[in-house]
């Protein structure tokens, strides 16, 4: 059976994701689709709208055959670390190809961009350092250095100001540098941009726009046109059980407590913290009544919004620099769910997987997995605070099985 892999968050699964998944299978002639999905905390330093189990069901009911978890150490990492972990896992579960959505829509410019940056690596790094010293943020410095290199060697390259192009480049970079056999394919993103609000004249909206509509109107009906029926059912099920969706605003009392209970020196030990920011974080937390107010008080030219959110994610989960960066690659494949076809694929290929497959965490001792479990436990605290309800934890939730 031929498998195509996709890297996802499905926060939530929407019509654009459905198009991407269907096109991925068509363009690669794959029998099975495998999603490596972030758990409860995401790459932009945010808690997921609903838990990983509801998002796994969304994926399986909408055509994905196997869902595996991207461990916390990668799901909350920068683009390089996030991509490396995801592509290694798809390769480990024997995907022939990986397919990613992009603003570019064709694969050759990605390959040309990779060749350009690899060939001029020393000059590229020098340019980045030069731009950083002028006070420009690191991501903006990367972009400016890239634009300067493009002028040196004209060709067909990708636009690295576009968020999905950036991730796509890092997927290809990871596969090439690790010398993996898995091959890249890209699918043209349609209509909605990454951060666009929803458009009443379209059935495609970004996940950001969909979440914004849910929080603004507190009604799932507002987004019914933009998500498949199975997604709507899972969102309704979550709302019925817990009466609220998850965001930093909901978590703010707990996050604020986590910040203020630590001294500035203690804060420096958490992952992704840089020298001096600990004082600004405590100061902003003291005078902010909401998370939005906190971020406005904290934001500066030196740090991107996403970088700051990743910092506070690690403060909230209590994960230190040493804990996060002791891992350079995945050590297991964590199975979250599968269809009957996915189960057949696993039975046929399990002996050839490059990493051990974990279906039940109780029988596994792994330091990376322990961080995933801690992140899940901290996510659950928010639900308990908001609705006095408990969500299923990692120890008592087996992989989801869907007969389709």
From TrEMBL:
<comment type="similarity">
    <text>Belongs to the TmcAL family.</text>
</comment>
<feature type="binding site">
    <location>
        <position position="101"/>
    </location>
    <ligand>
        <name>ATP</name>
    </ligand>
</feature>
<dbReference type="GO" id="GO:0016740">
    <property type="term" value="F:transferase activity"/>
</dbReference>
<dbReference type="GO" id="GO:0005524">
    <property type="term" value="F:ATP binding"/>
</dbReference>
<feature type="binding site">
    <location>
        <begin position="7"/>
        <end position="20"/>
    </location>
    <ligand>
        <name>ATP</name>
    </ligand>
</feature>
<dbReference type="GO" id="GO:0006400">
    <property type="term" value="P:tRNA modification"/>
</dbReference>
<keyword id="KW-0963">Cytoplasm</keyword>
<dbReference type="GO" id="GO:0000049">
    <property type="term" value="F:tRNA binding"/>
</dbReference>
<keyword id="KW-0694">RNA-binding</keyword>
<keyword id="KW-0808">Transferase</keyword>
<keyword id="KW-0067">ATP-binding</keyword>
<keyword id="KW-0820">tRNA-binding</keyword>
<dbReference type="InterPro" id="IPR008513">
    <property type="entry name" value="tRNA(Met)_cyd_acetate_ligase"/>
</dbReference>
<comment type="function">
    <text>Catalyzes the formation of N(4)-acetylcytidine (ac(4)C) at the wobble position of elongator tRNA(Met), using acetate and ATP as substrates. First activates an acetate ion to form acetyladenylate (Ac-AMP) and then transfers the acetyl group to tRNA to form ac(4)C34.</text>
</comment>
<feature type="binding site">
    <location>
        <position position="164"/>
    </location>
    <ligand>
        <name>ATP</name>
    </ligand>
</feature>
<dbReference type="GO" id="GO:0016879">
    <property type="term" value="F:ligase activity, forming carbon-nitrogen bonds"/>
</dbReference>
<protein>
    <recommendedName>
        <fullName>tRNA(Met) cytidine acetate ligase</fullName>
        <ecNumber>6.3.4.-</ecNumber>
    </recommendedName>
</protein>
<keyword id="KW-0436">Ligase</keyword>
<keyword id="KW-0547">Nucleotide-binding</keyword>
<dbReference type="Pfam" id="PF05636">
    <property type="entry name" value="HIGH_NTase1"/>
</dbReference>
<dbReference type="GO" id="GO:0005737">
    <property type="term" value="C:cytoplasm"/>
</dbReference>
<keyword id="KW-0819">tRNA processing</keyword>
<feature type="binding site">
    <location>
        <begin position="189"/>
        <end position="190"/>
    </location>
    <ligand>
        <name>ATP</name>
    </ligand>
</feature>
<dbReference type="InterPro" id="IPR014729">
    <property type="entry name" value="Rossmann-like_a/b/a_fold"/>
</dbReference>
